[in-house]
Specification:
The protein has 561 residues and is α+β, with helices and mostly antiparallel strands. The protein is built from 14 helices and 13 strands. The strands form three sheets. Strands 6, 7, 8, 9, 10 and 11 form a six-stranded antiparallel beta sheet that branches. A five-stranded antiparallel beta sheet has the order 4-3-2-1-5, with no helix packed on it. A two-stranded antiparallel ribbon has the order 12-13.
Length: 561
């Protein structure tokens, strides 16, 4: 009889297979998140890298049957397989490929992008003389420099030794005039307009006082004299602004398209320029950093598809901070009452259920509530009481930074309430009893022992609320966010923080670029870049809150209890 091993085998612990399934699910989730972040990072940073420009010649055939130019110059955005297999493709069995070229020159070609069959390309090269011009309007232009026409001087041809130095000089001067023009129009003339608006409101108030029988002749005379002085200052500044605008048109840059057409561009319309095919590796890296800094510090232009996102970054930051300032005391006080003072019973349980259910309400519902209650009811009441002279033009009776922050604070308050209750419950009972045994009252114990120990948990709730509020878009569309608002809500004009002002938001900026842009192809790189910096802003805000939480955790550690 053969020998049989009858030693009992070790049994696998019950539930071990589910542990492996959980680990696998966590790994898959992390991989998806990291993959998404990698896609956003690569495509977002690619938008700032200066690409090379290729000049191609197309063969005669279907590719040029539309009447487009047979010579094209542009940046290769991507190469892909054609979505439809054509019958006249080569007989190798391979599907034809195509390039998407960024041609620029939207004013000349109508569209800035074009797809070209690779099989229809006869020749291709990278000419060193091609120039890329960043313009205020119509997006970038690609072409070959011809001449620089200066006022009261003979034109300077592109092959002249001093051409590039002169072009840089006049472009730098145009940038200085543009900055001065902005200061004159936005700051100086803007201040005069604000003072004139306040004087007009004062005149309305005087009309009511005059109707009530008060003598207001002296006050009206003073207002008229001040208006005359302001109007004189306005005319002087307007004359200066017109002179600056005229100076922006004095010099012109002439360039040639690949079709042979010559076009003339006022130097005042040029933001920047460079020769992409002449850049070395280090110069490309420097240009990448320059483009990145410009994107973070400039205002958007050309339907938000060009320029920067600084107003959107600033608006998102200010709104998130105001939301956190509003939601933290409200959520913490509610949690303290429910946990420490309220008599536990059916009513308190119902309130907790209601708070938990609020966390699942769609955000657009909070937006509708904010529009109806904050904007129309509270804002209309504030206008009737404090800004009666400005009516029917609303001041707080329309969307603005204050109402947007309060709406998001209301939306995120359940997160803070739940986190604060959990943090209060986690404080060791011995800490409370020790404080009470030493003669402290319940409020003193709560103030000096419980709340400091629960502060890290409370900040965890605030961090979660900030992360959710910073990325919300739907409610903001109803209570204050707009497509373009280059004026920041925080400036040196009293009251410095303008809570009634509309603002830009990175989340809405992404929505506008992705779904409302007139040029979806040009907006695609901006979508990834803006998404990248929205994630970065949320991470920075969260890291700041986490740093504060860790400091509090070390300071108020209760490990001895």
């Amino acid at each position: 009889m053969p020998w049989i091993d009858q030693t009992p085998r070790a049994r696998r612990p019950a539930g071990e297979v589910w542990v492996w399934f959980t680990a696998m699910g966590l790994t898959v989730g992390l991989a998806m998140i990291l993959g998404l972040l990698a896609v956003v990072l690569v495509n977002g940073l690619r938008a700032f890298w200066p690409g090379r420009v290729v000049e191609i010649t197309l063969r005669e055939g279907p590719a040029t049957a539309t009447g487009g130019p047979q010579r094209l110059a542009g940046e290769i955005v991507r190469e892909q397989v054609k979505p439809v297999h054509t019958l006249d493709a080569p007989g190798s069995g391979q599907r034809p490929r195509e390039w998407q070229l960024f041609l620029g020159n939207k004013d000349a070609y109508g569209l800035a992008f074009r797809f070209v069959d690779v099989d229809q390309i006869a020749t291709r090269e990278q000419p060193r003389a091609v120039i890329r011009i960043e313009r205020l309007e119509y997006g970038p232009a690609l072409g070959f420099p011809v001449a620089l026409r200066l006022k009261d001087r003979p034109p300077i041809p592109a092959d002249a030794p001093e051409f590039r130095a002169e072009l840089r000089r006049v472009v730098a001067e145009a940038a200085q005039r543009r900055a001065e023009l902005r200061r004159v129009e936005k700051r100086d003339i803007g201040r005069i307009n604000q003072r004139l608006a306040r004087l007009r409101l004062r005149e309305r108030a005087l009309e009511r006082e005059a109707a009530a029988g008060r003598d207001v002749a002296a006050e009206r005379g003073r207002i008229s004299a001040e208006q005359a002085a302001l109007q004189a200052d306005y005319e002087r500044l307007a004359t200066r602004a017109r002179a600056l605008r005229a100076a922006q048109q004095e010099h012109a840059f002439v360039y040639r398209l690949t079709s042979g057409e010559e076009r003339q561009l006022p130097v005042g319309q040029i933001v920047d320029f460079y020769f992409p095919n002449e850049l070395t590796g280090g110069q490309r890296l420097a240009r990448f950093g320059r483009n990145l800094v410009a994107f973070l510090t400039e205002e958007p232009r050309e339907a938000n598809t060009e320029g920067g996102i600084f107003p959107a970054i600033f608006g998102t930051f200010v709104m998130t901070v105001l939301m956190s300032v509003a939601v933290t005391p409200l959520g913490v006080l509610a949690a303290i009452y429910l946990r420490e003072y309220a008599r536990q019973g059916a009513l308190v349980r119902a309130v907790r259920i209601a708070v938990n259910n609020l966390a699942g309400v769609p955000s657009i519902v909070f937006g509708v509530f904010g529009l109806g209650f904050f904007v129309y009811v509270l804002g209309g009441t504030v206008d009737a009481l404090l800004f009666r002279d400005a009516l029917p033009t609303p001041t707080f009776g329309t969307g603005g930074l204050l109402w947007a922050s309060l709406t998001l604070a209301l939306m995120t308050v359940p997160v803070v309430v739940v986190a604060t209750e959990e943090a209060l419950a986690a404080v060791p009972r011995g800490a409370r009893e020790g404080s009470l045994a030493c003669g402290a009252s319940k409020w003193q114990t709560l103030q000096r022992v419980v709340l400091p120990a629960a502060a890290p948990g409370i900040l965890t709730g605030v961090i979660l609320a900030m992360a959710r509020g910073a990325g919300e878009v739907a409610p903001l569309m109803l209570v204050g966010v707009v497509k373009l608002a280059p004026e920041l809500p925080l400036n040196l004009e009293p009251p410095f923080l303008h809570l009634d002002q509309k603002f830009m938001h990175l989340g809405f900026h992404i929505y506008d670029l992705g779904f409302q842009s007139p040029d979806s192809e040009a907006a695609r790189p901006m979508v990834f870049a803006t998404t990248l910096f929205l994630i970065a802003l949320v991470v920075v805000l969260n890291l700041g809150a986490i740093w504060i939480r860790e400091k509090l955790r070390r300071k108020y550690a209760l490990g001895a209890f």
